[in-house]
Write a structure and sequence with these properties.
Shape: elongated
Helix content: 40-55%
Number of strands: 24
Distance between the termini: 43 Å
Oligomer: single chain
Largest sheet: 8 strands, mixed
Radius of gyration: 34 Å
Strand content: 5-15%
Number of helices: 24
Length: 850
């Protein structure tokens, strides 16, 4: 049996070698289909299916199933289930850890570390400080995940106490990338946010933290060191939620009962806070609960963000593979029909049909295996392209482009499946050859056109191609609308700089002179005309919000975003003041409390035509005449996302606190403004270097976290949409190419099989134009049938993706028309080449062959 199999494989390789054109076309076609699917599957596997690289991930449970971020207080209002909480105060974690013995370990993790990078410098290093990602975790964090240190030791409970010396763990990737695996790093001193910290050890290789992120942590530090290292006053505040919790449950634990118990404990903890001890909070307290979610996949920010689009891309790539397989089936059918004479001879010499089917099926499998190998090469290149499209500005994404065992198994399984499915039918048809055919001249008796199955496959290809072309057009149209949305900002000659004054060691009382100094120094750079300083900027992934109430009016349960800005800010981003005035240099920390609001704020909280200037507003239930006076209205610039329509915003002077806020200034982290907007008179290629030098001259620890043009920041918000649009266009073009090749192949095959008939027609007086029309008619009829199926299919499919399209509710007539014309032109070209060849048939040669 093994000997026969080897013979079949050798014979298959010889047959494929004898027909290099067929082999190359088949391998390339199938490789593109398999490679595209394997590349998409690499991302799907990494983002949606892969567990954390930890011990026994199935026993890990996350308390809460939302990606809430980053520091919050008050009642949860931003989802339908108001009582479902996913991040918690430190006291709540401590209460659950003490009273839930169902957990072997329960770890606490900082929510939103990506928004608070740390400033790091190795002691004795003359290259200066740099910005890095630092995550604060509980002392049992690594123990909860069952990990061992790559070098040195892990963090322990002893490190996570208030009086402990500052210690940190460095990630393996950072150790290799920035310090070349230098063993002396362990035990050395690093200055983290200007404070000395000892590197206790190196995290295990491959560990990227408790969640898949495009910017995984470089350093892990104990929670109890955060108040000093990060100047974070909320760490021990019972009213501030800022921690995720992940635990490892003991064997046999009833998760439903545990969830109910934990919900009761959380209500107990929340009931002791100011927020839930009276008023609306007391009414909401009975609704407070938690949901236990699987924790082995991590706190999946990336999973929630990319899931729907990745699944859609997997479906689209599957359609491309289906078109490729239809092409392969057509090629194999044509090859099988052309080898009928060979099969007749083999049958006449005693070969059984089962033996012939096995031989032809072996050829199909060999072809599939070769295509699978080529597909892995395509997958590797495709995955690198996908990573570049999905994470264009990140170099630390913990996703490898090289095929993993799961991807290898997927590609191999896909190859074998296509080989079997699309090799059986052609092999069976070819094996039905009548031995008597070998004794006949064969030409007239076997010279028929393409089979109904072959034509049906071409129709299927045309229909699927139209669906993908329409999809590509809709996503491109959606991206175009997103990018051309009027955001009411000016991006020309604007640069966005992000810093971290908190990490540079500045206290709140030092911020006002720091901001003035930065304004003066940056204004001194030749070419700089405006220096805006703010909490965050338009189209930036950040938001601070709170409820607001107009003095003398009932609270409307509205949340407004708040941005702290300096006097140059509105001019620096290009937001126009429509009434009243902007923030000025006179609006200092001791000046009267003033605010500027956007048009949506006025529209929602004031009556039409009412003048809002001079009105006062503040926190709900605590508004007084001394609260913020509304002095100006600006147009609705878009912040965070273009999908966020009619969003209320108000703008405060950088250092002006609410008059009703009696807490110490040292607890007010909202005063830290990490964004700078530089408007210049002309493009400046050296702006980044000049900015870094200027800030470093103020304080060497005032490092630049990110520097980009305003256009780049806005474009960064459309990364996912741009990836989807480009990939659907790529898949649509690939589908069109494969469908065109398929139609060309069937038409050329039909012409070749009907050479004698065409010769006789021409000998009897048929014109060249008539022959071309006859051949083109057949090609266009198949395309027309494909359109008849594809148009309603496209109309149905758009319903499943309209939520991912921006302001598009159905198939646009222009997109549909362009898709139909594109497919029709491609079909015409595919049919014209064989048609012209048919019209050039020499009747004498055709009849001589007959």
């Amino acid at each position: 049996m093994v000997t026969t199999l080897i013979q079949d494989v050798r014979y298959a390789l010889r047959q494929l070698r004898k027909t290099p054109g067929f082999t190359a076309t088949a391998v390339l076609t199938l490789a593109l289909g398999i490679g595209a699917n394997a590349a998409i599957f690499t991302l799907v596997n990494a983002v949606l299916m892969r567990n954390l690289p930890v011990a026994d991930p199935k026993t890990l449970v996350r308390i809460g199933n939302h990606n809430d971020c980053c520091v919050g207080g008050g009642i949860q209002h931003d989802r339908d289930d108001e009582g479902d909480y996913s991040y918690f105060p430190t006291a709540t974690w401590q209460l659950l850890r003490k009273n839930a013995p169902e957990f072997e370990e329960l770890a606490a993790i900082q929510a939103g570390f990506e928004y608070r990078p740390v400033t790091v410098r190795r002691d004795g290093d003359q290259t200066g400080a740099r910005s890095a990602m630092g995550e604060f975790v509980s002392g049992n964090y690594f123990r909860t995940f069952g990990l061992k240190a790559r070098a040195g030791r892990l963090l322990t409970d002893a490190d996570d106490v208030e009086s402990a010396p500052f210690a940190a763990l460095m990630s393996y990737a950072t150790w290799q990338r920035d310090y070349a695996g230098d063993p002396s790093v362990v035990g050395s001193t690093f200055w983290v946010n200007t404070k000395p910290v000892t590197i206790a050890g190196i995290a295990p290789a491959g560990f990227y933290g408790d969640r898949l992120s495009s910017a995984p942590p470089d350093f892990y530090m104990p929670i109890e060191s955060m108040p000093v290292l990060a100047n974070a006053p909320y760490v021990h505040s019972p009213n501030e939620r800022w921690l995720y919790m992940v635990g490892r449950v003991k064997p046999g634990t009833d998760l439903a009962a545990l969830q109910q118990k934990l919900s009761g404990l959380v209500r107990q903890a929340f009931g002791q806070t100011d927020v839930f001890s009276g008023g609306a909070g007391k009414e909401q307290l009975p609704k407070v609960h938690v949901v236990l979610a699987p924790g082995g996949g991590g706190i999946q920010h990336m999973q929630e963000h990319y899931a729907s689009n990745l699944k859609m891309l997997m479906t689209i790539s599957g359609l491309v593979l289906l078109i490729a397989c239809a092409n392969i089936a057509n090629l194999l059918l044509a090859r099988g029909m052309s080898r009928k004479a060979e099969m007749s001879v083999r049958t006449a010499l005693g070969a059984g049909r089962a033996r012939i089917v096995r031989q032809l099926l072996t050829e199909s499998l060999v072809l599939a295996v070769l295509s699978g190998i080529a597909g892995l090469i395509v997958a590797y290149a495709g995955t690198r392209m996908l990573l570049a499209l999905a994470f264009p500005s990140s170099h630390s994404v913990p996703i490898q482009a090289s095929p993993s065992p799961a991807v290898l198994a997927f590609a191999c399984g896909l190859s074998l499946l296509t080989g079997v499915l699309f090799g059986v039918a052609p092999a069976w048809i070819a094996a039905q050859a009548d031995p008597a055919d070998a004794l006949r001249s064969g030409a007239r008796t076997t010279a028929s056109g393409a089979s109904l199955l072959q034509r049906g496959l071409v129709v299927l290809q045309a229909a699927l191609s139209l669906v993908l072309l329409v999809g590509a057009g809709l996503f491109s149209q959606s991206l175009n609308r997103l990018q051309h949305t009027d955001m009411h900002v000016q991006t020309q000659n604007r640069y966005i700089v992000h810093i971290n004054p908190q990490a540079a060691g500045y206290s709140q009382t030092q911020l006002e002179p720091l901001y003035r100094l930065m304004e003066d120094r940056l204004h001194a750079i030749p070419g700089v005309v405006k220096v805006g300083i703010s909490s965050y900027t338009p189209m930036e992934d950040d938001n601070w919000g709170d409820g607001v109430q107009i003095l003398g009016r009932p609270y409307k349960n509205e949340i407004a975003s708040v941005v702290r800005v300096n006097s140059d800010y509105f001019d620096s981003v290009g937001t126009r003041v429509v009434s009243g005035r902007a923030i000025t240099g006179k609006d200092t920390s001791t000046a009267p409390a003033v605010a500027v609001v956007n048009q949506a704020f006025v529209k929602k909280l004031f009556k039409p035509g009412e003048n809002p200037i001079g009105q006062h507003f503040g926190q709900p239930g605590n508004v007084s005449p001394g609260d913020f006076e509304l002095v100006g209205v600006v147009e609705d610039s878009i912040y965070q996302s273009v999908y966020w329509k009619d969003h209320m915003m108000y703008f405060l002077p950088l250092m002006r606190r609410a008059p009703s806020d009696k807490s110490p200034i040292s607890e007010d982290i909202e005063l830290y403004a990490p964004a700078i907007v530089l408007a210049t008179s002309h493009p400046m290629n050296d702006m980044e270097a000049l900015t870094r030098q200027t800030l470093s001259s103020i304080n060497p620890n005032l490092t630049v976290v990110t520097f980009q043009t305003f256009d780049e920041q806005i474009a960064g918000n459309f990364v996912e949409e741009r990836m989807i649009a480009r990939l659907t266009m790529l898949f649509g073009a690939l589908a069109l190419l494969l469908a065109t090749i398929g139609l060309y192949g069937v038409t050329a095959y039909t012409v070749a099989r009907r050479t004698s008939e065409i010769g006789i027609r021409m000998a009897l007086g048929a014109e060249r134009g008539g022959v071309i029309a006859m051949v083109m008619r057949g090609a266009l009829i198949q395309t027309g049938l494909g359109l008849a199926i594809g148009i309603p299919a496209a109309l149905v499919c758009v319903r499943f993706v309209k939520t991912q399209l921006y302001e598009i509710k159905g198939v646009d007539a222009r997109v549909l028309a362009v898709s139909i014309i594109t497919l029709a032109v491609a079909a015409s070209l595919a049919g014209l080449i064989p048609a012209r060849r048919a019209a050039s048939t020499d009747p004498a040669k055709a009849l001589r062959t007959e």
